[in-house]
Structures are given as C-alpha cells and as structure tokens.
Amino acid sequence: MNMEPTVLAWLTAGVAVPAAVLVFALGYVSRAASTAVGLISVLALLALFAYTANIIMAYYSAASFPPDLAWVEKGLLYQRVAAGQLAAASFIIGIMAVQYYMEISKREGHE
Amino acid sequence: MRALVKLWELILERFHLKEFLEHPVPRYSNINPLYWFGDVAAVSFFLLALTGFFLALLYTPSVNVQQIPASAIMKWDQLYGVEGGEVSATGSYLSVYKIVYLTPFGFILRQFHLWAAYLMIMAALVHFFAKFVLGAYKRRGGGALWLLGVLLGFLTINQAVLGYILPLHLDGILALMIGLNLFRYFDYLGIPVGGTIIALLGSNYPTNEVVKMIYVLHILIVPAVILILLGLKIQGILYGGVSPPPVRNEALRQKMVEDKEPFYPHRFALMVGQVFLQISFLLLLVAFFPQPLLEPWAPGQGVPTGVRPPWPVMWYYTYVKMIDPFISVGLPFLLVLFALVVPLLDRRGGVSVSERWVWILIAILYMAVIGYGTVLGFIVDIPKQITPFTRIVVPPDSAVPYAGTPTPVG
Amino acid sequence: MVDENRRNTIKILIGTTAAVGAGMLATPLLASIIDGRAGYVKPETTGAVKVEICKDVNSCPKELGVPLDELRSGPVFKLIRVNSMAIPAVFGLVRATDGKEYPAAYVAICTHFGCPLNVMGGKYLTGFNCPCHGSVFTVCNDPEGCYEEEKAEETKPNQERRKILKARFLEMYVSGGPAVRSLRSIVVAVKDGVVYPLVAYI
C-alpha cells in the first residue's frame, strides 16, 4: 500500500525543516558539519522524492476522462508533496552554495 | 576524482572558457539587494524556457469545440459557475486540462511555469525600479543597457499576455479578443488597424490559424528576441561592469569598485546558490499556493460579467476604464516612451541617493502609477465612464443589415 | 590617404549591397505570412472591413444559412468561416413596431474593446449586452427610424426642439455603456425559407 499524501507531507516536513535550520545554524559554527548535514538531508529528501515519483507514475497510469474528482484531488496532493520535497532539497543545496561562497571569499581565517 | 578534475581542466582549456571564468567581478553588488533582481529575472526566464520545453511537447493549440461533461470541471476552477450537464470547450483547453489533471507531474510543470512567469514580471519591475534609483544609465554604456532593458520589459509583458491566452479558458479568449480589437479606435484617425490585423492574422476572431500564430510567437519568436537582447545585456555587464554603488564619497566608491574577485569559483558559487534558492522558492509557491485553471469557453456561449485580467495587466484595465479610452489605450506606449527618455533627461552626475532624490521620487511615482492601478483593479469595480468626446456616429453602410429595403417575413 | 578613401568607399558599397540583399531575401519570408489574406480585404474609411461571404443568394451554400423556423424560436449563433476568417454572427427575428418580423444578423463583437456579446430578448432579438464593461446595444425597430429630441442647449431660440435621427431602422445602436459605435451588421437575404448572410462588416 502506498503512503497517503498527508503522511508523506508530514514526513518530508519532519526531515526538511530541522535539516534546513541545522544547515543554516551550523554554518556559523563549523562549515564541515553543516555541509555534512546538508548532503545527508538532500540525499534523504531525494530518496523521498524518488518514492513519491514512483507513486505518481503508477497513479497516473490509471487516468481516464472524465476523471473522478476525488482521484484528481489525491493525485494533485501527491504532486504538491513531490514539489515540496524538491523545494526543500533545492533550498538546502542553495544554502550550501552560499555558505561555500562565504567561505572562499573570506580574506583570512579559512577553515 | 583526479580524472574528473583533469577532465574539467581540459574542457576549460579547449573551449576557451578560462578568460570568461576568471573575469573579475566586483564584490559590492553581492551584498546590495538593488543589484540582485536582474539575475532573478534572467534565471526566471531560463526556468520558464525549461518548463516551457516540456509544456510545448504536451500542448496542442486548437479552437475546435468539443462537448465535455460539466462534472469534469473541477470546483476550484469554476470562478463563475458552470451550468448544465455539458460544457463546450476548445481543443486547447482540453489539451491544458489533460496536462494539469491527467499527466504525471503535469500539474507541477504548469504551476511552476505560472509562478516563474509571475516572478519574472515582478523581478523585472523591481529591477527597473532599482536601476532607475541607481541611475544606471549614466555610466558609459549604461544608456544602451537601459534601452535593452526597457525593450526586454515590454517583451516580458507580451510573453505573459500571449502565454495567458494559450489555454483558451474564459479569461484567455477574452484577452485574445480584446487584444485583437482594442486599438480599433485608431481606425477613426485614419490608421487602418482593422485591415492590418486581418491582413496579418487573417481574422479578428479566434481561429486555428490565429491561435497557432499566438503559440508560435510565445514559444519561438519572442523568446528568441528576448534571448538576443539578454545576451547583449550580459555581454555589456561582463565587459562594462555593473552600475557603481550609490555612495557619495568618490574615494570610497572607487575603492568599492576596485574590490573584485574572479567570476569562477566565487560569483559562480553564489549564482548556483541563487538558482537553487529561486527554484526552491518557486516550488514552495507551487506546493502551497497552486492557481486554478479557470473555466472553458467556446464561441456562442454566454459570457459572465466581472471577468478581470491577470495582475500583470490589471493596471492597464483599470486606467482604460477610468480614463477616456481614446487616450488610455496608448498608456503602455506612453510608459515605455517615458522610460526610454529618462536617460536623455537625467544627465547630471552623481550616483548617491542624496544627489538623485528628485529622480528617485519620479521612479517611485512611476511604480506607484502601476501599483495603484493594479490594486484598484482588484478591489473596486470601476464605474464605466461615458464621455461625449468618444461618441462617434457610425456611417450607415456597416450598421444596417440590409442593402436595400428590408422585407418582412411574418 | 587615397587608399583610406578607396577602402571606405568599397566598404560602403559592400555594406549597401548586403543590406539590399538582406531586404530582398526577407521579402519572401514576410510575404509568405501575409499571402492571400490581404487580397480580398479592402479597409474602408469608416473603419469597417467589408468581407464578402456569398456573391448572391443563389450561390450561397446551404450550411451558411439559418432556417427561418429555427429563427422563430429564438436568436441563433453561427460561426461563419470565410477563407481565413471566422465571423461570430447572431441571426435573429426583429419585431418591428408595424407588427411585422424582419430577419437580421449582426457581428457579435462589442465595438468597445472586442468582448463577445450576450444576446438579449427571448423569441425576438431585442439587443445585446456586453459582460466586460456593460455596454448595451438595442435594435431600432421603428421602420421610420428611431429619433430622439434635440437637447435643450442645442435648440436655437424661438424654435421648437427638432427631432434628430438617432438610429436607422434595424440598426443596433448603443443605448448604454461606454461603447461608441453601433454594432456591425451582416447583410442578409432570404431564399426558400432560409436566411443567408451575404456581406459582413467587421
């Protein structure tokens, strides 16, 4: 049985929000740690995305016209969860890139 | 790992990318938000192109009408209510319906394309305001970049309107019909607008050819022109530099301008970060604020009242309703002309805020005109002005459906 | 010095030839999208574009006509295709003040900014209204023409108010809202109980 979209959404948020906060905060302390946390959380989010994408591809193979309203709503929920997962992964990658820039543009005291 | 590094160095050398990548860029523009929005608009354009590729593969333009059951229209799409058991929809609408509701990831594609379009327009407007405030046209080469920028802004709004027409939902078809007939007032000044439209498009009412022309303009011709102008702009900034920081002290300004870093890896890393943060922002908008598809419409059906255009052209709608149409249909051209004329009028030196406060006020006024029109269009139903100036008696030939004496039938 | 001059002259000649050549090459490109369409359309000074649908009633194909029986139950919408054009036409019966019914057809595009019009009237066509900005068009159903009284400020002193022709018989004039000109009409003719459109004014 596939996971329900709301469950997936909470799972994604549970991974993404602490990870984002950690990566941001750790950046001020230790760049190595924040990069490590960032990479692991991105991999986790991409794994979640792969799982959701799998569900979506299977779900839409049963598409018919005119579609059932409830069926469409559930499909949209899955897609929105997938978008959220990609959003979280992109966000963490973006923060890591900015942190990298801040590191290499320092004049002294590189890690 | 070492092999990858060697491969990278080989690519850099053989494609002559080293000079491009090691080009020094100033650091002050990384911190000042006034310099960020041009990049945001350009990245939005490329994201639109990327999602546009996939949408273009899935979409088919057509005005051929099909009957679909009214239950197929989602309740969040019905802004004006769908009556009856069956609804008429055009082929284009059904194509977009299929993409959004029946294709895996089609929903994300279309929503991302929509939000990226809104972001591009917003970023372009903020970028225009920022460059106006900075007096970016004053430096050598700045006037040319300003001209390119105004043209790009005009083309961006064009793209938005053309793209909005393509699904041929109620708002899209109205936008198309109004766009085709809006400037017919100029017929009375002797400018053959009606004849020109029919000569170029073949019709002043939606047909398959007209919709196909809109489609080709939207996916091919206007993006090609935008790409060329954008390339010229990037060339100008890379070799001419961005506008100097708004600092009054000459020595400090000079020091800031000379504080540079190589494009790669410094600025490149920042750009990668910006791209991913922007993608993330857009995807969050897609996930939390998806926009409806709106209802279908086909020729012959009744049209509900109160249809408003999307926010990018809402200000035009407001002012055309409030002011005499003979004057207000030309409003966008007036705004573009004024924007083009600004570098010719503002020639005095000085780039700091305290020296430029007059022009900054003018910039704020310009944006306020657009902003006021946009907000007003959403919250107020503008009363329809009737001015005696625009009442024209039409010569009889075209107004009476008989070429002689009308004959009764009953 | 002379060499410089010669070089510049040659550059100008080559440049001009290249520009002329580019213009020549571009002409067929542009012509291909304007082909054929401009031929049969001649814009008039009134701003109306005259489009001939059928040469005369006898050569009109049956699909373009609307049977009178269908018209008697209410106005009929028909999308008329002529070459590359599509004309949204509304056919209807107008009941005149003399009690007779007259068939008429109009182009259902608002003359304000081009929105599609909604039909007003039940069995008989009485007018159109525009959903976009509220223009209202009403048909003049008086065979003598519709007149209105001259305004007080325009009346010459010691003369009574004259009547001004507001609209001719069967003209769909603007009776409210911001539109400025009457609706464009389609010249119709009746043959064997079918109403055919002959010429449309766009």
Describe it for me?
- Chain A has 111 residues and is mainly α.
- Chain A has three helices and no strands.
- Helices cover 79% and strands 0% of the residues of chain A.
- The longest helix of chain A has 36 residues, at 69-104.
- With 410 residues, chain B is mainly alpha-helical.
- Chain B is globular.
- Chain B starts with a helix and ends in a 31-residue tail after the last helix.
- Residues 386-395 of chain B have low confidence and may be disordered.
- Chain C is elongated and about 90 Å long.
- Chain C is 19% helix and 34% strand.
- The model of chain C is unreliable at 38-43 (pLDDT under 50).
- With 202 residues, chain C is an alpha+beta fold.
- In chain C, strand 6 (118-120) and strand 7 form a beta hairpin.
- Chain C has helices spanning 2-34, 68-72, and strands at residues 50-52, 66-67, 76-82, 85-95, 101-107, 118-120, 127-129, 136-139, 146-149, 163-167, 172-176, 185-191, 194-201.
Brief overview, please?
The complex is a heterotrimer of chains A (111), B (410) and C (202). By secondary structure, chain B is mainly alpha-helical.
Name the largest protein-protein interface in this structure: B-C, 62 and 73 residues
Spatial arrangement of strands, main beta sheet of chain B: 1-4
Order of helices and strands of chain A: HHH
Average of pLDDT of chain A: 91
Question: If helices are DSSP runs of H or I spanning 4 or more residues, what is the number of helices of chain A?
Answer: 3
Keyword list:
heterotrimer; A: mainly alpha; 3 helices; 79% helix; B: 410 residues; mainly alpha; two-stranded antiparallel ribbon; two-stranded antiparallel sheet; 16 helices; 4% strand
